[in-house]
Amino acid sequence: MRAAVPSHDVFEATPNPYLLLAADSPTFTIIGVNEAYLRATMTQREAIMGRSLFEVFPDDPATPEAFGERNLRASLDRAIQTGLPDRMAVQHYNIRGSDGVFVERHWRPLSVPVTGPGGEVLSLIHYVEDVTSDVAGARETQTALTASDARYRAIVESSTDYAMVAMDLSGTITTWNSGAEHVLGWRAEEMVGRPTETFFTEEDRAAAIPAQEMRTALEQGRGIDERWHLRKDGSRFWASGELMPLKDEAGAVIGFLKILRDRTSQREVEQALVEQTDILRSVTDHVSEAVFRLDPDGTILLANPAAGRLFGWPAGELVGRNLHETLHHHREDGTAFPAEDCIFVRALREGTPIFAEETVFFRQDGTPVPVTCTNAPLLREREVVGAVVTVTDLTQRKRAAEQQDILNHELSHRLKNTLAIVQSIATQTLRGVTERHLVEAFERRVLALSRAHDVLVQRSWASARMRGVMESVLVMQADLDRFALDGPDLDISPQAALSLSLLLHEMATNALKYGSLSTAAGKVRISWRTEIDPSPTLVLDWAEIDGPPVVPPSNRGGFGSKLIRMGLLGTRVAALDYAPVGLRAEFRAPLADVLVQVR
């Protein structure tokens, strides 16, 4: 074959990379180059013209296994010797950039000899096609395939929690991974060649379930089921299974792959949850309180039968309605109640609990219902997903409380009348007594009992607040700002309230006569606390401040002193210290006798 040297215009205009070489092996001097070649090789015309091809394009020392220079030189020599074009396989031949750093390149070279009249080779037209992207893509694909195959094998063999069983179209097992051995108990050499139905239960084999699963997989592309399966030792386990067809390259089904996972423990948990749900539903269906399950927007997702009965709604019609808009839309005075002002709406949005909050809900017919509400937020990963609201009807309780209040006021009226009669009788009886201070002391003690009675009436004679008892008695002797009270406001029993009122009355009376309250600047600090060791005890401290110098009594005193020495609840645990700077006293009583007993 004889090739003519292309014209200069054609040589330059062609988009393909061409190089014109002298046939001066082994130098192969560059005597012509087009723009496409210069772009492909990142070179400049003036930098390569007249130089040896292999001086311009030496081998990359970082890839000694490439042999690009050696292979190309051999190809050029063959073209000169045979006078025929020489096409090479794809060559890994990196080229050096302008910064001296080699860049990866892969080429498909073609060398065509240009011959003279006598058939002698005058020069060589060297054409190259840059196939770097193709080679890189193929390499990446191969790497991905290799990695994918490796991952597949690794997944199949290392997935000990998943039994992966391959079978042919007849259901005969062909592959049995380590997960199958772990889950089912048989080794691969025991199961390959045996029918799949081996690990199905007797009842499923009788019902032809294995064949049914294969038909479903063929018709629907996969078959998913949950059922009991057998282990080698004969025990049963609940498995989640999936069967899918295996196809060859032509798309023909050649078998099936079954993947199993032991879900026995999860099933037990799910069944326990179902049972708990049934129990919970049974409880909510039979309690007297209205119970609502709300979504984050306040929409009712569940309402128990008591909710329907309490608010006059037919069964099921509360579900899907907004709780506030349906039952809490107005205030007790009849004015509209916007949702943004509602404490329950805010609690639902913010995920905060509410305990026994009193309010008024409305029945379907508009009748108000006094209730207490408890809001229990439901959170999932710190996000509010709803709430459970329990509503208790207070109608009967309020009626009973009103009736009790009437009875208490009647009892209070009669008891006050009795105390007044006692005081009147005492006054008449003691009219002739010349020591009037004794009579006045008696009357004040009766009045102290009356004040304690007033405090007890407020709590239906069931209990009294300790601070309230103190203030009601002390105010009889001096302004309350002369007393510093410090201690927990306990609920105390009626007996403790009466005893405390008499004790404080006597202490304040003495302070007013002889102690700190007898001066304008004097004060009394009363503090109380509870102690655990050696047994739960209430400790009451009395300390007089800024009064006159204290002089201890010369005798045991009269009835008032006796009341003080008796202490709280008659325990007779009373320590009195007549220090010159002011009287100090400490009283102790068993905490169980002081506090209200919860029955």
Could you characterize the architecture of this molecule?
Keywords: ATP-binding, Chromophore, Flavoprotein, FMN, Kinase, Nucleotide-binding, Phosphoprotein, Photoreceptor protein, Receptor, Repeat, Sensory transduction, Transferase, Virulence. It catalyses: ATP + protein L-histidine = ADP + protein N-phospho-L-histidine. Residues 222-275, 355-406 form the PAC domain. One of its GO terms (molecular function) is protein histidine kinase activity. It is an enzyme of class 2 (transferase). The chain has 599 residues and is an alpha+beta fold. The chain has four domains: 8-136, Beta-Lactamase (2-Layer Sandwich), CATH 3.30.450; 159-267, Beta-Lactamase, CATH 3.30.450; 287-393, PAS domain (Beta-Lactamase), CATH 3.30.450.20; 432-594, Histidine kinase-like ATPase, C-terminal domain (Heat Shock Protein 90). The longest helix is centred in the C-terminal third of the chain and has 35 residues, at 395-429. Helix content is 39%, strand content 27%. A hairpin with a 5-residue loop joins β5 (95-96) and β6 (102-103). The chain starts with 7 loop residues before the first helix and ends in a 5-residue tail after the last helix. The chain has 20 helices and 25 strands. α16 runs antiparallel to α17 (466-474). The strands form six sheets. Strands 1, 2, 3, 4, 7 and 8 form a six-stranded antiparallel beta sheet that branches. The chain has a five-stranded antiparallel beta sheet with strand order 10-9-13-12-11, sandwiched between helices. A five-stranded antiparallel beta sheet has the order 15-14-18-17-16.
